[in-house]
Write a structure and sequence with these properties.
heterotrimer, A mainly alpha (about 300), B alpha/beta (about 425), C alpha/beta (about 425), B: about 425 residues, alpha/beta, Rossmann fold, 2 domains, eight-stranded mixed β-sheet, 15 helices, C: about 425 residues, Gyrase A, domain 2, four-stranded antiparallel β-sheet, 15 strands
Chain lengths: ~300, ~425, ~425
């Protein structure tokens, strides 16, 4: 229902204020959904953990992303003084790995998502706007990428590049842009026909301005939802890759820790795998919850009712 | 066409009494239909006009119990229907009394009818023609199959008779065929159907069915019914699809047809043809039609009587000639003046200022009060009710029926 | 009963020189098929259309779906490039329009003049406004594009525009979805007005609105025209609106202009049977309610294969032998006859007017021959048949050659493309 005549708004209303109110309203809708709220809470805690890592666990010297090793205290169970979550076979502090692993995961997901979103938007926009054989070629490449499962593809690329955490990031970047390109192209093709784009052309606005003012903002919703979901998925895939051993051993990374701990599970040393595994689970869950909430909140069919 | 030769009015076959349909929304209850009442007489075409959001479609759907709940809440009122040739009125045993409108037939409240009873009425006694025939037809079935559905649903016994199976036959084959015709066929029946002697009889049923479908299509002036029966909806033009919808609606010779903007999606010249067709068929079958539309000139062209709705209420009811030549409600007057017509100077159409009010938790008072040029203090406090201003012409406006002190108290008591 | 209304722009019309001229415009869309996207045909959406728009006048463009009115308006707005033909625009280089005024050949600065002087208002009031922009951005955008204003000056200009269309300062910082349909259309109009154009193309601006709101918008458009000497190209299917708004009107059918002339003349004496049928189908509230209003049979033919000769001859109630009868008319006739259509095996065409129809059996050929001599086909079709011979199961039919139907003058500024000199009533 359209609002016919709102009560006269407070004086000195500004464009900035109205836009902020829109964001605030969006956040309010998101937080009013209990599952999304839980997702936000988990993300908040994980982020806090990553930010305050140096205070929670004194950084290892010289490289804080390397697990500290205490060869005198291997295979300690949780609750051991000094090692509240126990230690690994190699005497690594599980708590340290869990805390510093959140930084690694954050790095991984932020880098991969921002790189892939930019690549995807660029390629999808070119395909959708230029059309013709360029579109055909790009989309066939996308089809090839999509026909291989993400994990297998990333695994193959990482294996070729050689085992290192940087190469995991690189391989995920190579794999994950495809979905964004797909989504962006579909959005562009839809929006290109929209009356407001035609209207902007009649005004005489430039193509570049139409792209940034009309097309990009209106195409952003599904991209944002996908990116949020991928923040979780990427950590999951990244952990899998490091679990298999495609990251350097000894790095404070949840997948690596799970991998190091799994040998001991059979002999009852469950802690070294369980705690980092739980972190991976929480991370992926939280972003998926928020992603789903975002999709519902941004659904054009429900947006007007807000 | 309402003027009967004997001077007596045809019986009322359907009636809406104080219907209230609300919709739950985040900002409160939307009173989409808020005390609507009108009557439909046998064999007449009643136009229900109003602007977007006035509740005319919801009212139309109430006749078929097609209001989705939730989000809708039926907050009160009755939708009464007296099928022709129905059971006798329990109050007077068929002799005609006030309760049954002198028809002697039983009166059903469609809102309280059990689902299975409603299914029998829907399509057979009350049919609907939708605005967009493209959406109302199933894209994966041929027209013939979809049309056959109606007959199988409501006319199974007649089909069996056409196929030469009398109701007394109680042998295995006849029972199987009966199940097929009633769409209750079991797995075994479908297998049996392929073998003699069932195959022939089943073929006869199919023939009878096809003949009926073809006849129904032919009645809507479709030139080549057999070809249309084999076609899928997307292969037909919009006008053709609407003819199929009309054929489907008329298939069981219903007493009442709800036509919800049946021509809005069509081109002007095709719209004229379809409307003329509906009018012709309505007169031939003596079917009552509730024609829901926003187009005043078309309502004037095809309807006998008209009810003007505004913001969930009926503002004015009367014969087409009365309402169009002598509108009494300021809204009707404004609406008619707003239609561009020959001789009006450009830029000088009489427009109604403002826009339709929001119907969230409304306060009592005339819904048109804030746009009305002749608003009085009473208009914003009391609900005007329909009152007669002439034979068969009623208006809900205090200009015609000034509120008196007693009414104010009653109204106040009612709304509290 | 029908006095020609004295429109305020009648005076301006006479004084006004030609602002925009469309000459022999064609826009064809290729129909592609198969994996190689081979072009298998052309939809002639706009086919040889010419007309002028003068300063300060309203030209109504009417027709049903598929008649090409939307494509034509997009060509005029410069949104689509025509296949051939030219659109000339007076950018103030003298009153006579010539080859140098073609919008596709204008130098950059004069193209900018054209661009800002021809604006457009769309039918779908919701889709034509960017849902992510505030009203101030939407209306202020043209001013920003041409660097006419910025900062608080821009805001004030936008407020002035809002006030002109009946909105106000309180609406500056709202999103489109917070308005009603009529208000959104006002925003669209304000945006079109921002650059003070000379021509606004109105593509069904009120057909999504209710009657009472439509009246508000039409009044607004009328007032703005008076104030600003605007010219309108008013595209619509609603004849009531055209009669109210337009000084001159153009009726299109399947890509061609069938009639054009001063609105009142056309309404009182339509010279083309299609215009006549359109007028009847949209009754005026002042008309006699018992007047017949459905004059036309059949559906609009496929624009990819428009009928020969006069494109309206398949539905025309006043059809003559010289309207362009062709073999496809026999096929259309056959489609209505199940048994004959089933036994038709093929059509061997020598030309569009001469072909062999091959049936399964001789009896069907004879049956069709009989039918085509009987009253089941229009009399005009029978009269146009030159040859109708049966050889075995083949029926050869030939129709007489006729001239293309051209727009001919029927009165001052009144043209119609019909073989009939006048329509008897």
């Amino acid at each position: 229902m359209a609002v016919t005549d709102l009560p006269t708004p407070p004086k000195r209303e500004t464009a900035f204020g109205v836009r902020m109110r829109r964001w605030r309203d969006l956040l309010k809708t998101l937080l009013s959904n209990p599952t999304t709220f839980i997702g936000f809470l988990i993300i908040f805690l994980l982020l806090a953990m990553a930010i305050f890592a140096p205070f929670l666990a004194p950084p290892n010297v010289p490289d804080p992303y390397q697990m500290p090793r205490d060869w005198g205290a291997t295979r300690m169970p949780p609750g051991t003084p000094g090692f509240p979550l126990g230690t690994t076979n190699q005497g690594g502090d599980v708590l340290y790995g869990v805390i510093w692993g959140s930084r690694t995961s954050l790095q991984l997901s932020v880098i991969v998502v921002s790189v892939t979103v930019v690549i995807g938007i660029a390629i999808g926009s070119i395909a959708g706007l230029v059309g013709g054989w360029i579109d055909e070629t790009l989309m066939r490449i996308v089809d090839v990428f999509l026909s291989i499962p993400e994990l297998i593809f990333a695994l193959a690329v990482a294996a070729i590049l050689g085992p290192s955490f940087t190469n995991i990031i690189l391989s995920l970047c190579i794999v994950f842009w495809v979905k964004y390109a797909r989504i962006m192209r579909a959005q562009i093709i839809l929006i290109r026909q929209a009356d407001y784009v035609q209207a902007a052309r009649v005004i005489g606005d430039t193509k570049l301005s139409i792209f940034f003012k009309d097309m990009l903002p209106n195409a952003s919703t599904p991209i944002a939802v996908q990116a949020t979901l991928d923040m979780g998925n990427i950590v999951l895939v990244g952990a899998t890759l490091s679990f298999i051993g495609l990251a350097e051993s000894g790095i404070a990374e949840w997948g690596v820790l799970v991998s190091e701990g799994q040998a001991g599970i059979a002999s009852g040393r469950w802690w070294a795998s369980t705690f980092p595994g739980l972190m991976i689970f929480l991370w992926a869950l939280a972003f998926n919850l928020v992603g789903d909430g975002l999709r519902d909140a941004l659904d054009p069919r429900t947006e007007d009712k807000r | 066409m309402t003027s009967n030769l004997e001077g007596t009015e045809p019986p009322v076959i359907a009636e809406v009494r104080d219907l209230r349909v609300h919709f739950g929304s985040k900002r409160g209850r939307v009173h989409a239909v808020d005390g609507v009442g009108f009557q439909i007489r046998d064999g007449e075409m009643l136009g229900l006009v109003g602007e977007t959001g006035c509740g005319k479609s919801v009212t139309g759907r109430a006749f078929l119990n097609l209001i989705p709940q939730p989000p809708a809440i039926i907050a009160g009122g009755e939708v009464l229907f007296r099928p022709r040739g129905g059971a006798a009125c329990p109050a007077c045993a068929g002799s005609g009394c006030h309760a049954c409108g002198q028809t002697g037939g039983e009166t059903l409240d469609l809102l309280k009818l059990p689902q299975d009873r409603m299914r029998q009425i829907r399509g057979a006694r009350i049919a609907m023609i939708f605005q967009d025939p493209g959406k109302a037809l199933n894209p994966t079935l041929t027209i013939g199959v979809q049309m056959a559905e109606v007959f199988l649903q409501h006319k199974s016994d007649e089909l069996l008779q056409d196929a030469g199976i009398s109701a007394d036959d109680r042998n295995l084959a006849a029972n199987a065929l009966r199940r097929i015709a009633h769409q209750e066929d079991r797995w075994l029946d479908r297998r049996l159907k392929r073998f003699p002697p069932l195959r022939q009889a089943a073929g006869r049923i199919q023939q009878a069915l096809d003949a009926r479908v073809a006849a129904a299509l032919a009645e809507t002036q479709i030139a080549n019914p057999l070809r249309v029966m084999r076609a899928y909806p997307h292969e037909l033009s919009g006008g053709m699809r609407q003819r199929v919808m009309i054929a489907q609606a008329l298939a069981c010779d219903p007493d009442l047809i709800i036509a919800d903007e049946p021509t809005t999606a069509l081109d002007v010249t095709i719209q004229a043809r379809i409307l003329e067709l509906i009018k012709t068929l309505q007169e031939r079958h003596r079917t009552a039609v509730l024609y829901i539309s926003h187009d005043l000139s078309l309502v004037r062209k095809v309807c006998d009587r008209v009810a003007v709705m505004y913001a969930g209420r009926v503002a004015e009811v009367g014969t087409v000639s009365d309402v169009f030549s002598n509108p009494r409600h300021p809204y009707t007057q404004g609406l008619l003046a707003a239609v561009p017509r020959a001789g009006a100077r450009r830029g000088h159409l009489a427009s109604i200022p403002g826009s339709v009010p929001e119907l969230v938790n409304p306060t009592p008072g005339c819904r048109f009060a804030d746009r009305c040029s002749q608003v009085m203090p009473a208009c914003t406090q009391l609900d005007p009710v329909l009152g007669s201003v002439g034979e068969g012409h009623s208006v809900a406006c205090f200009l015609e029926h000034p509120p008196h002190a007693g009414a104010a108290k009653i109204e106040k008591a009612l709304t509290e | 009963m029908m006095q020609p209304p004295k429109t305020d722009s009648t005076v301006a019309m006479k004084a006004g020189d030609t602002l925009l001229s469309v000459r022999n415009l064609n826009k064809h869309f290729p129909i592609k098929d198969g994996i190689l996207q081979k072009v298998v045909g052309q939809v002639r959406a706009v086919d040889g259309v010419s007309f002028d728009i003068r300063r300060g006048e309203t030209v109504g463009l009417v027709g049903e779906s598929g008649c090409g009115k939307t494509t034509l308006s997009q060509c005029v707005a410069g949104l689509t490039d025509p296949t051939s033909g030219e659109i000339l625009f007076n950018t103030g280089q003298g009153s006579q329009l010539g080859d140098g005024d073609r919008i596709d050949k204008l130098p950059k600065d004069r193209y900018r003049t054209f661009r800002r002087n021809v604006q457009m208002v769309f039918q779908d009031n919701f889709a034509s406004l960017n849902p992510r922009q505030l009203v101030v951005d939407i209306i202020g955008r043209p001013l920003k594009v041409y660097r006419e204003a910025s900062g608080s000056d821009l805001t004030e200009r936008v407020v002035a525009l809002l006030e002109q269309v009946g909105l106000g300062r309180q609406h500056l910082y709202r999103y489109p979805h917070q308005f009603s349909g009529g208000q959104r259309q006002r925003i669209s109009i304000a945006r079109a007005l921002a650059l003070d154009p000379e021509l606004i193309i109105l593509d069904e601006p009120t057909s999504a609105l209710d009657v009472s709101v439509q009246a508000q918008i039409l009044n607004l458009l009328g007032d703005l025209q008076k104030e600003r000497q605007l010219a309108y190209l008013f595209v619509t299917h609603d004849l009531g609106v055209v009669r109210h708004m337009a000084d001159r009107m153009i009726t299109m059918y399947l890509g061609k202009v069938v009639e054009q002339g001063p609105t009142e003349t056309v309404f009182q004496q339509p010279a083309h049977p299609y215009t006549e049928a359109l007028l009847a189908a949209k009754p005026d509230l002042a008309d006699d309610p018992d007047k017949p209003f459905a004059l036309l049979e059949g559906t609009i033919p496929d624009p990819a294969r428009p009928p020969l000769g006069c494109r309206f001859h398949t539905r025309c109630p006043r059809v003559t032998p010289s309207c362009g009868w062709e073999i496809d008319d026999i096929v259309r006739f056959l489609e209505a006859d199940e048994s004959l259509f089933q036994s038709l095996q093929g059509v061997e065409r020598r030309s569009a007017r001469d072909a062999d129809l091959i049936f399964k059996d001789p009896a069907s050929a004879v049956a069709l021959q009989e039918a085509m001599k009987s009253s089941s086909v229009p009399e005009a079709m029978r009269a146009a048949t030159e040859r109708l011979t049966v050889e075995g199961s083949r029926l050869r039919a030939t129709f007489s050659e006729v001239d293309e139907v051209q727009l001919t003058e029927r009165g001052p500024e009144h043209f119609a493309a019909c073989k009939l000199d006048h329509l008897s009533r």
